[in-house]
User: Fold this.
Amino acid sequence: MTWVLYALTVALAVGAYRKRKTGLVVWLALLSAAFFFTGKTAFLVLGLISTALLLGQPLFVLMGGLGIALLATVSGMSSLDEQVLVVRQLLGLAGKEVLLAIPFFVVAGELMTQGSLARRLIEFMKAAFGWIPGGLAVSAVAGCVFFAAISGSSPVTVVAIGSIMVPALLKAKYPEDFSIGLLTTAGSLGILIPPSIPMIVYSIMVSSATPVDPTDLFIAGVVPGLFIGALLAIYAVTQGLRFKIPREHFSAARLWEATRQGVWSLLLPVIILGGIYSGIFTATEASAVSVVYALLVEWFIHREMDRKKLLLVAEGSMTVMGSLLVIIALAIVLNYFLVDQQVPDLMVEWMKTLSLTPTKFLIVVNLLLLVVGMFMDIMSAILIIAPMLAPMAAAMGIHPIHMGIIFIVNLEIGYLTPPVGLNLFVSSSLFKKGLGFVIRAVVPTVAIMLGSLVVVTWVPWMSLGLVEALKTKPKPAPVIIQNVEQTPQPSDAGVKSLAELMREAKQKADAGPPPELRVKSLEELMREAKEKKAAEQAQLERDAGWGAADP
Assistant:
């Protein structure tokens, strides 16, 4: 296997660098050194990375190739029957109900992009915030926050809101780099403001080590998401004052008309998030509700949907879901190898030997994830890195939900950092600007995001406060018993806590069931039947007068 890979890489290097002799010599020297002076596993990794680079393959192909090669060589799963185990692992994803939420949210986002929900939402934001300094830019940020609460996707948010707001900002005399940088960054809130597709994938991938409910992650993302949105809005206000952008006059009539036109857009996040947080439906059910709601509104109320647009929705949704499921499947193969070789457990043990404090650990994690975000797309990072970091964080005493939000915020910044920041490429294509221009445009807003990361990391309340508040129920008032003949009750009788109920259940179990409810043995039943029969016979004798002489 290694010889074949070595020969293939050499052949590809010769083909790629045949006209650049210096580059060919350097590449072959590095490749040969890795082949002859490293172990088999190290060369497999380096050789496959080199091959993927020379062939120009995407990252998910590299992950799948690495996983299959390492399972065949290191884990010894070379036969077809053994490789079938990996396929069974992939099929196990079909049993995860929460995974169904992803395609539904993708379809909902496409429906709103093709319809008018996004446009009506923007009109409402302009009417509500257009009168303050930098009001149009603030409207763009607010639109991204609301649309993120509908689509759950960062690139979709950039396309839906950016395609409308960037031309409007340029028309209002905002600088081009500010406009593109603001929308590119605000669009990344799509993965932090719930519902979020990456949050769903994260909860699936860490479930074996530190089970996390995606609904809890959704709740935890609200405060950090609004906090980052507020910082971006403040930045927009300062720039509006700096460039002396004319303000719009506030009009109650315009706000009322925008509210009337956009009421269905504003209701969607309320219905979805309200249903999730109130427990009416789960995250998966909420995703299905969002599709039905968006389709009914666009088709029957707004009348912005037709058969042609439905075909575009289907095409866009299938393209996104197809690529996403391929990435998940191939990353699962590599993750299976890591679990098989106990890599997460070994990393936890290694981390314990470093004697890191939770503070030092979080610093290392943030630096690592910022680097990972530069070179991996968010799904690949979640699928590969999250299962290894989650048990390490748990061993350091960091709350799993807090760790999840830190992970998401870091990779949210990864959307904006080269060389593989997805939002950079989306904006470059959407606004027809060079990648270098977009990178320079997002520098100020990335600085704001980094400051937000520091706050989210060192203030756990931002992630956990709302979760704990929604799970905490007020204790009922004490009930004073006036009738002394009643069975005594504790002074704080009322709705008992789970701990009290479990303690009472244990005491009852230790004491055994009451005699009238206890299951009797066969001997006891026979003895009772015999005694009952004897008593009946004695009663018959007394009734007949046979026992009259008895005392």
Q: What stands out?
A: The chain has a mean pLDDT of 77. The chain has two domains: 2-96, 98-305+341-470. Residues 307-340 form the longest helix (34 residues).
